[in-house]
Amino acid sequence: MRSPIFMAAGLALFTSKILADSILSEPLSSQQILPDNFKPPQVFQNVNLLRNTNLEKGYVRETVNVVIENVDSKPQDQYYIPFSADVIDKVGGLEVRDKKNPGPPFKTEIVEYDPYSPTQFFRTTIPQPLSPKSQLTLSITYNILSTLTPLPFKIAQIDRQYLRHTFSTYTPSAYPTLKQKTKLKFSTPNVPDAIGGSPEKQGTTFTYGPYNDAIPAGALEPASVRYEFTKPVIHATLLERDIEISHWGGNLATEERYWLTNQGAHLKNNFNRVQWAQTERGFGYTPPTSALRELNVPLKVGSLNPYYTDDIGNVSTSHFRSSRKEAVLELKPRYPVFGGWKYSFRIGWDANLKSFLRVLKTPEGGHALKVPFLEGPRMGEGVSYGKVEVRVLLPEGAKNVKFETEVPLVAVEETMHRTFMDTVGRTTLKLTAMNVVDEARDKPLIVTYDYPFSAAFRKPITIFLGIVAVFATAWGIGRLDVSIGKQS
């Protein structure tokens, strides 16, 4: 029985042909250039704003719920979100939605007007322009990577680790704000330093405000907190993820290549292996550490044939647990990854293609593939990715490729990839995203393509003709007369 979800997804993609074609045929540009003297028009005001900052992981997760009001005499549909110039290139996963009416995120893009300006902007377009004096509740979510700094920068091997987060108690806004509040959520109540503001402390939460006086646009109130985070700050500068489809073998092969680093505090002294072995044994208790000990990679149920290699070769310190309910690949690096250390490796596994692919009822032989955009480790301390490149290698002869994903992309490329016994090569869809976090694991990637019946026999025919050519060549060579002298 064909899944209704796959059918609906495939049909939706076909109906959005114009949008998909424009994405695949034109280079993406995430910036809109504006005049150097640009300032966001003061057509909105923030009636009430609540910002929640989550510091429970190794990156900053911001959620801003704000009630905006159109104070202009005309309908307005463009809302600007400011960031400092040194932070905007570290912002990822920014989504703006109508909080009261769940639906797809609004169109959001970076605007560029002066590369030397200390403030840059994202611009979001409200689908239905907001009429004068009307209000709308926006939910703005985004992640900020690589801004948490260890303090002190160097610690001993068994010391606790502390991170510093610098922010403004006033939420940066391009518009005046009548009332606002900021909340910070930590993973531990151990917060020895809080500079700026007068937060209300309750357990693992700090609350700044409420500020009931009107705050002008662009106003900032610097503050910082230093809190315990004795966990690795895991960051992948690059992740290359290949998804290869084989119709003949009924297999979906996945390989991921990681370039990891720990952005936590560096070691004050040289690494002491004896001391590390003592903490590893722990006598029933394993103390917390800022070093990366292991990685747990949940896979789809039914995954098989996993492998784990690094620059040296196969890594035997791994374990694969598979059952009817779960499949987990447990990885242990060759050495503990302390702050400033790096570790690169690759993992891969196979899966039954039927679990991810559905055949669409189209005369062209349509297929719909649904896979996670990102899999990888799932860790309590979180994992961030500076750059993610996902390649989907379709079978030879696939055409009319379209895709859909909620992950913001910076580049899309369609190329040909040649492998063993290919003739023209396999159609390959390459998607590139920046500043991604492990929460993208739950976001699907849907790819539809046409695979005609004749294309399925391209490889068998190629193999058959190749074998015939070999035998014909051998027969022809055997018929040659290579003897020396005249024939009698």
Contiguous runs where pLDDT drops below 50 for at least 5 residues: 1-30
H/I helix tally: 4
Question: Would you count the extended β strands for me?
Answer: 31
Q: What kind of sheet is the major sheet? A: 7 strands, mixed
Strand content: over 45%
Helix content: 10-25%
Radius of gyration: 28 Å
Structural class: mainly beta
Shape: globular
Mean pLDDT: 86
Spatial order of the strands forming the largest sheet? 5-8-3-2-12-15-14
In angstroms, what separates the terminal alpha carbons?
74 Å
What features would you describe in this structure?
The chain has 488 residues and is mostly beta strands. Helices cover 10% and strands 46% of the residues. The chain contains four helices and 31 strands. It has helices spanning 4-15, 17-25, 273-281, 458-478; strands at residues 31-33, 44-54, 60-70, 76-84, 91-98, 107-112, 119-130, 135-144, 149-150, 154-155, 162-168, 180-185, 193-195, 200-202, 205-211, 222-228, 234-246, 251-262, 266-267, 295-299, 304-310, 318-322, 327-331, 342-352, 357-359, 366-372, 383-396, 399-405, 411-417, 426-437, 444-450. It has a seven-stranded mixed sheet, with no helix packed on it. Strand 17 and strand 18 (251-262) form a beta hairpin. It is globular, with a radius of gyration of 28 Å. The N and C termini lie far apart (74 Å). Residues 1-30 have low confidence and may be disordered.
